[in-house]
Amino acid sequence: MAKRCQFWKEYDSVSGTISYCELAAFNRPVNPDFLAKIGCTEAKRKGCLGSMELNIGGGAVPVPAPEPKKEAVTAVASFSPPAEICKSFVGVAEKKANTKMGSLIPLGILAGAYIALGAIMFTIITNDLSAFIGDGLTRMIGGIAFSLGLILVVLGGAELFTGNNMIMTGFLEKKVSGKQLLNNWFWVYLFNFVGSLLVVFLFYYSGIWKANGGAIGVRAVNIASAKASLPWAEALFRGIFCNWLVCLAVWLANAGRDVIGKILAIMIPIAAFVAAGFEHSIANMYFIPMGLSLVNNPALAGLLEPAVVQGLTVKAFFLNNLIPVTIGNIIGGAGFVAATYWGAYLRPLLPKKKDLIANGKM
């Protein structure tokens, strides 16, 4: 019998001619394209198999390997949807409300220090930038620099009072008691203050504020004086706007599923609040004490305007700024973000609405 193809093999034995297909005998994997190329059609395979059966009573021919099944590709969202974020904040709220003092103290101090580091960056970056690029771009770049603080808090891990206003979701969901809520806010606020003052102390004795002919120190005092001179109502409303954006930054960071996404989610709202001139209570725990520590320093004598010096006092720090800004921050974070999103996604349905849903009318 003539060879059917290069893989058809025959040899004589005592019992007669033995024929076989080398591809099948050695289990060589084949695919339809390869078989078509060598002319191994289904009809020829049947003919080869018939020859083998005639000679040796049986045989095997190559069978095309089945094409691998294509797995269904499931689209994976690059961020968590709002309802899922809202639920996650309830769990975060429970965890934060039950944090022991042994962890709360250092994490609170770190958060205050991290925000102060962002404030230092803001002061240094903007000390003379407006002379080159104008006020608007200076505000935006300063805001990006300041966002360092919240990036460190969220990704590094720390307890920040303004961010912890989101514990309100756990309170509204009845997973956190009012006592736990206020206890966390009080202690975190206090230790944020300690962390901020620690950085004021370190930055003062670092002498970096003397750079650029004392311009950084002058900038620090001017920022502090402007904040301490705000009318009470303006400080309150700027505080509301500020923590509305800060808590949205925290919210969006929780939506992100990778580090770059989280950083961008934090940076954009923070840059917006700084550029707009809104007021952050924990940042002001650094900004105003830093100005107070420098306002009467001999190294800045003759560089400060008399009105700036007169307007910067400890009393003005607390009464004109810290108190109204803190109240505003709570309204903006706990009210405009936490309570609003809880109401949108987690609030129990009213009985009438439940009936409508049960009857398929909604």
Structure description:
By secondary structure, this protein is mainly alpha-helical. The protein folds into two domains: 8-56, no CATH class; 82-345, Up-down Bundle (Glycerol uptake facilitator protein). 69% of the residues lie in helices and 3% in strands. The protein contains 17 helices and two strands. Strands 1-2 form a two-stranded antiparallel ribbon. A hairpin with a 2-residue loop joins strand 1 (8-13) and strand 2. Helix 10 packs parallel to helix 14. It is elongated. The relative contact order is 0.12. The model has no long low-confidence stretch (mean pLDDT 90).
Give the topology, please:
Blueprint: E1 8-13, E2 16-21, H1 22-25, H2 32-37, H3 42-56, H4 82-97, H5 101-126, H6 130-146, H7 148-157, H8 161-164, H9 168-172, H10 178-206, H11 215-228, H12 232-255, H13 259-276, H14 281-294, H15 306-311, H16 314-345, H17 351-358
Antiparallel strand pairs: 1-2
Helix pairs in contact: 4-16, 5-6, 5-7, 5-10, 5-14, 6-13, 7-13, 10-14, 11-14, 12-13, 12-16, 14-16
SS strand fraction: under 5%
Structure summary, number of beta strands: 2
CATH-level-2 architecture of the largest domain = Up-down Bundle
Classify the fold: give the CATH topology of the largest domain. Glycerol uptake facilitator protein
Number of domains: 2
Q: Could you say which structural class the secondary elements and strand pairing correspond to?
A: mainly alpha
Which features does this protein show?
single chain, Glycerol uptake facilitator protein, 2 strands
Structure in a nutshell:
The chain is mainly α and 362 residues long. The chain contains 17 helices and two strands.
